[in-house]
Amino acid sequence: MLENVNLEVAAGDFVAVLGPNGGGKSTLIKIMLGILPLQEGQIYILGEIPGKAAHKIGYVPQHATSADKFPVNVLDVVLMGRLGSIGRFKKYKPQDYSMAEKALEHVGMEKLKNTLISNLSGGQKQRVLIARALACDPEILFLDEPTASVDQSFHSRLYDLLNDLNRSGKTIVVISHDLSVLSSHAKSVACVNKNLYFHDSSEISQDMLEKVYHCPVELITHGSIPHRVLKHHHCTHD
Fold first, then answer.
1. DSSP sequence for the chain
2. Taking each helix axis from N to C terminus, what angle separates 94-106 and 122-134, rounded to the nearest 10 degrees?
3. Cβ–Cβ < 8 Å for 4, 30
4. 188-193 and 195-199: which strand pairing?
5. Residues 6+ apart with CB under 8 A from 59
6. Which fold has domain 14-208?
7. How far is CA 175 from the centre of its chain?
């Protein structure tokens, strides 16, 4: 359970959310999106309560959703990202198809737009979910471990895409265990482990990591890629 969380994300920020498994990272994002109920306190997204600004928000869950259980193709899934803009039970317009196909191009899936989502690999499904989130042209983009299932070649491409979106004015909030994100893209860091520690800089110190992981941690860099290393200690981890 999250406790005493106080977070304000500035427009145009690129926030990396770090923390151990079970620390509350995904819970925090889902509460902000209105997917999980708020037990106490207040949350406002773009000046509105969670859920009211859904048409201005893109969300990429960590795993493929139940959409792959139905006989729908890739383009159909991405078009779902336009529902917040057009409203339910209304027909898609040419602009909606154009936005969906543009989003597929961003993630390199345009050639598979007529393929059944159930026939895709895990990494390909994750790309489709990213395209679905981009299809609404969101002001804020939330991503929960977006590279968990994708291949290494798309890994770098995705963060380059997020960087371009951020430079164009979009706010990015991404949960990641990949510290290379911080060194290359993030502008600020939210460390979450029941409590939240916010840092308006992408620089990570050993003190920051030990505070959130509750363990002695060293940060080691090989080239430009930093790694998190735990010293010998008696804590247990998931």
1. ---S----PPTT-EEEEE--TTSSHHHHHHHHHTSS---SS---BTTB-TTTTGGGEEEE-SS--GGGGSS-BHHHHHHGGGHHHH-TT-PPPHHHHHHHHHHHHHTT-GGGTTSBGGGS-HHHHHHHHHHHHHTT--SEEEEESTTSSS-HHHHHHHHHHHHHHHHTT-EEEEE-S-THHHHHT-SEEEEEESEEEEESSS---HHHHHHHHSS-EEEEEETTEEEEEEPS-S----
2. 130
3. no
4. antiparallel
5. 29, 33, 133, 141, 142, 143, 144
6. Rossmann fold (3.40.50)
7. 6
Tell me the domain boundaries of the chain: 14-208
CA 217, CA 89: separation in Å to the nearest integer? 52
Q: Which two tokens stand for residue 37?
A: 């109920």
Q: Distance between CA atoms of 197 and 109, rounded to whole angstroms?
A: 37
Per-residue pLDDT of the chain (238 residues; tens, 9 = 90+): 788 889 999 999 999 998 888 889 999 999 998 889 888 889 999 999 887 888 899 999 876 665 666 789 999 999 999 987 776 667 889 999 999 999 999 899 999 999 999 899 888 888 899 999 999 999 999 999 888 777 777 787 888 888 989 999 999 999 987 776 666 788 998 888 888 888 887 666 666 666 666 555 454 443 444 444 444 445 554 4
